Amino acid sequence: NLILSAQRGLIYDKNHVLLTENISSTDLVFSPKTLPTRENETFLLEHLTEIMPFISPSDFREALERARKTQQDVLVAKAIDHETVLRLEQASSEIPGATLVSSLVRKYPYGESLAHVLGYTSPVSATEIESDSALIATDITGKQGVEKKYDTALRGQHGFTYTEVTASGKEKTDLGRKPPTPGQDLTLTLDISLQQFIYGLFSERDAKAKAKHEDPVQGSAVVLSPKTGEVLAMVSYPSFDPNTFSQPGKRSGAADTFENPLKPLFNRAVDGTYPSGSTIKPFLAAGALQEGIITERTTIYSTGAINVGPYRFADWKAGGHGITDVKKALAESVNTFFYI
Q1: Annotated catalytic sites, by residue?
Q2: Which residues fall within 8 angstroms of residue 37, CB to CB, at 6 or more apart?
Q3: pLDDT tens digits for 84-112?
Q4: pLDDT tens digits for 267-278?
Q5: CA 206 – CA 214 distance, rounded (Å)
Q6: pTM summary value
């Protein structure tokens, strides 16, 4: 059987702007059915090490043993550069069991601004293959964000061609095919223009802080539609480039991401816990109005603080805001109105 890979589904914003791309690539796998015996594998390993010196002999041996043990194709290298692919093709008769396979890698054109929302993909792990029989060695899977949450739907289902072969491996009869089922496309509620604008505000403020030798900027911003509750933008700062995880050629940048003391992988918008601050005031106002505790005409006299026993709870404005109704309390963020 020859596997026909399924195209991974694409992700769009609410205006159908493309947020992800699939890039064709070539992988090298070890196919257990055509591998030489252990006694004769030295020839194979020597040629592969010469052609691909960036992979250690021990990694080649480990992949060989895993292919023999599992009797499944095992990924040796993903997204191989064009020159190396040509050399492998020329040496195909000298590297039995080492097979070139077409696949894809994910590209994230909006990089850091969307990293925490989309997450990223990377080559499937041995553990994932063991737990999911639908996965193959050249697959990619979602590791964070939307890519992980909707991974099964985005992946689709691989197809097959069925061919009868002779004992020597020569193709004899075409027995038909099952076409692949492409992964489902996803449309998010996000507006990428708004997302980029907000990320740009963080980035600009951070650049100014660095120029003044101030502490680096850290924070998050979430914009919701008041009518539907849809998430229109969700930014966590600092961020990271998801392409460093999805594209092997950029993998060297991943180490910097992990070692960054500001923890750019941490999604402050979703996983951070912070005091609510003044964002709670509209909810207190709505609750008080709904329960009849106040009306839109209820006023208090804001003097700058309230005292409860030995405790003093101050307003942000010294001297207070004077006579305040609920509209003024929301417009000027009057602490004492909501304390009362």
Answers
A1: 278
A2: none
A3: 999 999 988 888 889 898 888 999 999 99
A4: 999 999 988 899
A5: 9
A6: 0.78
